[in-house]
Amino acid sequence: MQAWILRHPRTGRHETSPISSGLMRTTVTLDDEVAASLRALARRSGRTLRAVLNETLRRGLARSKSASRSGPFVVRARDLGRLQPGLNLDSIGSVLDRIEGPIHR
């Protein structure tokens, strides 16, 4: 069995937190539709909710790691043609007035 010594954020006291066999017990608040989807997947697959939740979290974490390795998102500028006479792109209010009319306010 391993133990971590943690400093309590409110009291400042050091506390020992036992960790056995690599498992951590915690409380997670799930949205109703997420919990229902996880329970349905567990029923369909014949696995426990715990197993389905762990697998789903692992997949999500792996996907976020691979997405971050793909490089930054780059916006490529393109020519949109000439501006209409009297249109000033420096003023969002005047653009909205022109496109949607004064009712947008």
Structural account:
With 105 residues, this protein is of the alpha+beta class. It has a domain of 68 residues. The protein is built from three helices and two strands. A hairpin with a 6-residue loop joins strand 1 and strand 2. The longest helix is centred in the middle third of the chain and has 21 residues. The radius of gyration is 27 Å and the shape is elongated.
Assembly context of the chains: single chain
Form type: elongated
Q: Largest sheet, if any?
A: 2 strands, antiparallel
Secondary-structure element order, as H and E? EEHHH
Name the helicity range: 40-55%
Counting H and I runs of at least 4 residues, what is the number of helices?
3
Tell me the fraction of residues in β-strands, as a range: 5-15%
The neighbouring-strand order within the major sheet is 1-2
How many runs of DSSP E, i.e. beta strands? 2
Our Rg estimate from Cα atoms comes to: 27 Å
* Chain-averaged pLDDT: 78
Low-confidence stretches: none
Q: What is the terminal-to-terminal distance?
A: 64 Å
Structural class: alpha+beta
